Each structure stands twice: as structure tokens, then as C-alpha cells.
Amino acid sequence: MSPLPAHSPWRILDPAAPAPLRDHQLGINRRQFFGRAATGIGAGALASLLSKEGLLGAEPEPGGLTGFPNRPPKAKRVIYLFQNGGPTHVDLFDYKPRLHEVHGKPVPEGYLGGKRFSTMTGDPSGKLMLQPVEPFQQHGRSGAWVSAFMPHTAKIVDELCFVKSLHTDAINHAPAISFLLSGAQIPGRPTMGAWLNYGLGVSSEDLPGFVVMTSVSKGTSCGQIFYDFYWGSGFLPTRFQGAKFRGSRDPVLYLNNPDGLSSDLRRGLLDDLSELNAIKFRAIGDPEIETRIAQYEMAYRMQTSVPELTDFSDEPDHILAMYGPQVREPGTFAYNCLMARRLAERGVNFIQCMHAGWDQHNSLTTELYTQCRDTDQPSAALVMDLKMRGLLDDTLVIWGGEFGRTPFIQGDLGNRERWGRDHHPYAFTIWMAGGGVKPGITYGASDDLGFNAVENPVHVHDLQATILHLLGIDHERLTYRFQGRYFRLTDVHGHVVRPILA
């Protein structure tokens, strides 16, 4: 066999060749080899035939996948007010009068049934029941029960749909959050916002389609860690992952041009860099190269859009007052809620506001007050602000955490300042507003002690299927082929909760 010509990409360089080039050539993997070789033509033809038959995970067009949404959507966007740590359903929204009757008594037989709890509880047998910390009252025309912890939410109950029969499979925070947001307890799957970016495309030209903001109450001792996989794209190309905005006046690093670099010079640099990346993409076919091109372009456009987004000077004083005293402080939940409304106005499809600190193992009578004070007013204000602007009808707002808290106490009943509750996946409450859900209703119920979802149980996969349905997506059809099988947000489960649909 004659030696390969000197210009051939498959010619192995001698040891004296420049190391980076030699390493690159030696590092070509099997997929790249067949992609570059003549057989790649046949593979391309085969891929074309398979894609026509729907047998390959197709790459989305700029506006999303062809055929999506596949039914008329009720919602155009989602704002998920995710409360990390597991808000206590029996102290906030799920009123159980019988808890007063059994306060201080052991858990009644028949409620545990071999259930798993965290290692902090271990065997729950003999644990003492704990009544709600604050009193409940009925509110609005709907008569929804809301605790005194949440006075502002109590005023908008007729706009809300409470789901009180949610249940999940995970008993610890990170797996439960991953499960709710990605459909799997183990990290590595695309999260909800990434799936929507992939399926529906990006509506805004100047901002990412999926934005994440995080906050935590000051002085809390039970804050949760914000892992990047909570807004990751998993096996989807990384251009679909969430863009995390920092809690500062400068939410996105490195947007501004360095000293001495004009906008025209930067534009020319990006154009040349895009051309080089395009050449590399044609040679290798790595989708992450396309991601890099898109990120550079988005960063360039965000140089103008982000400063305008974070400038609240155009907000009337009465709107700022609605969100509460922390609204002017970057990094607070109130600030992020107002940012969420401004992002929604500007076409961002999925906005994830994550607030940590709800993990009250020993602070129900102290830090729970802080958590509610920091989140109650801004959450209610966001709903009403969207409604006043005509955005609530096509914006789905969701408030809730990864699970609830145990109806029994964690700690010493005689030491009220250290009362707590452990993780509870078997029944918990969320509320939803706008975006095609019925307002002023309560769906599902837990038992008389808040232990188990007994009436119209809603599994996490059912919630995911319902969210996608409201956005015009059949959850069984939005799939992506990876490692030989088709994946979807709801895995192989999920049913749309139709009774809550408007």
C-alpha cells in the first residue's frame, strides 16, 4: 500500500510534529473517523431515510422542532417559583384539623405502611404528631384554606389552582429536585426548560430562552446548594441549557467589551470566529461547535438587552411596592420575581426562580417565618402584576418545592424553638396560576393527617405531562434519541391532569 500523501488528514505525524496537531489527529474517535471517511456519505443517506421515518432524534430548527407545538397551546411561557428544601404543606396550605387532636401523640398505626423516610428520621414508629404552627383561615370566594404564614397569597386564592395530592419517589433534596425538573433522580437528563427550548425554540432574539435566578433568605441555616444540573441540558446540545443570571447589578459576566475594544471591532472578531467555527463544524460535526457560535452571538446581543432588563427606573412606584421592600436588592426573591415578569414580557419561554432555605428540620418556629416573609408577597405580586398586564392568561406560574414535610415532629416537643419536620414525599402541595389552569379550585387531597395522597393523586410525571400539555406539547411525542433509546421528560410515565385545565 502506498503511503498517505502529506496533506492527508489521516497521515500520522512523526514525533517531531507540533504536539497539539499530533494529539488532535491521534484523538480522532470512531464516530469522527466514519463521519470524515467516504462511508460517511452512506451514513448520511441512511440518517436521512431514518429521520423521514421518525427513527432519529431530529435537531430542532431555529424556531423549534417541526410539528411543535402539536396542539393549540394555552401557555406561551412558564415561570417556576421553585422553593428548594420542601415547604411544609401541613403548615402552609394543607389544613388538617385532626392534627390538633393528635398533637403530641404517637403516629397512629396504619399511616406508615413501610414508607421510607430520611436517615434523620429512620424508623418513624413512635414519632409524635405536631399541629400546625400558625392558624389557618378560609379565603376568597373559593374558600381556600391558607395559613397565617401566607397573608399575601391568601388574598389571591381565587386566581390559584391548588394541587394537594402531589407525590414523588425521592426522599432527599438533590434527587427529588432533579426528579421533578428532569424526570430522573440521577443527574444527566435534560431539565424542563431545556426540553422546551429544544422543542419550541426561542422566542426572544436578544435573551436566552431559558433563564435561571437563585436566591436564599439572609441568615438562614438550612439553605440548599444550587447544582448546575438543576437547569442543565443533559444529553441535549448545551445551547438548550438554562442561562444563570447572578444576583447582582451585573447578572451576566463578561458581556461588556474590554477597554480598547469597540463594538465594531468586536462584531468583526465574532464574524471571523463564527466563520472559523463553521469550518470546524463542517469537518467534525460536533453540535457543541454550533452551541459556541450561538453563545457568542447571544452574548453580543445581550450587551444591549441585559442592561435595559435590569434597569427598574421605568417601573412605577406602586408596582415596586407590590413586590415588597426587597425588590430593589439584587439577589433577593422579590427582585427575581420582578425580573421574571420583565423577562416574560421580553419573550423568554422558561424562567426558573429558585429560592433555598425551606429545609426546616429544627426551625419551624423561627426560619419558616423568614422564608414566608421573603417569598409570600413577591409571589402574589407577580401573579397580580402579570394579570394587570394581560400576561397571566398565557403565562403559567407554578409555586412549590420538591416534596413536603412530615406531619410528625423532628426534635423535642418540649423545646418549641427547635421544632422541625423531616422530608415527606408522599403528599405535598403546589399552586399554579394562569396559563390555562382553572382559577379558584383545589384538586386532590391528602388524608386526614396529611400523610398520603388519597384523592386524585398526582405523580411528578403527571405534573410534567400537564405542564407540557398546557404549552401545546404531547409529552409522549417530545423525545430525543440517546444511547440507543428515546428519552422524554416523563420517562415512560405521566398522564395529563385534565380536571384542572381551563
Distance between the termini: 72 Å
Shape: globular
Structural class: alpha/beta
Number of helices: 14
Topology:
Blueprint: H1 19-26, H2 30-36, H3 39-52, E1 77-83, H4 89-92, H5 98-101, E2 136-139, E3 144-147, H6 151-154, E4 160-167, H7 173-182, H8 192-200, E5 210-216, E6 243-245, H9 263-284, H10 287-309, H11 317-323, H12 333-345, E7 350-356, H13 367-388, E8 395-400, E9 404-405, E10 423-424, E11 428-433, E12 441-443, E13 445-446, E14 453-455, E15 458-459, H14 460-470, E16 480-482, E17 485-487
Parallel strand pairs: 1-7, 1-8, 4-12, 4-15, 5-6, 5-7
Antiparallel strand pairs: 2-3, 4-11, 8-11, 9-10, 13-14, 16-17
Helix pairs in contact: 9-10, 12-13
Can you give a write-up of this model?
The protein has 502 residues and is of the alpha/beta class. The protein has three domains: 1-56, no CATH class; 77-251 and 310-500, Alkaline Phosphatase, subunit A; 254-308, no CATH class. The chain is built from 14 helices and 17 strands. Strands 1, 4, 5, 6, 7, 8, 11, 12 and 15 form a nine-stranded mixed beta sheet that branches. Helix 9 packs antiparallel against helix 10 and helix 12 packs parallel to helix 13 (367-388). The protein is globular and about 75 Å long.
For the structure shown, list the relevant keywords.
Alkaline Phosphatase, subunit A; alpha/beta; 3 domains; single chain; two-stranded antiparallel ribbon; 502 residues
Short description:
The chain is of the alpha/beta class and 502 residues long. It has helices at residues 19-26, 30-36, 39-52, 89-92, 98-101, 151-154, 173-182, 192-200, 263-284, 287-309, 317-323, 333-345, 367-388, 460-470, and strands spanning 77-83, 136-139, 144-147, 160-167, 210-216, 243-245, 350-356, 395-400, 404-405, 423-424, 428-433, 441-443, 445-446, 453-455, 458-459, 480-482, 485-487.
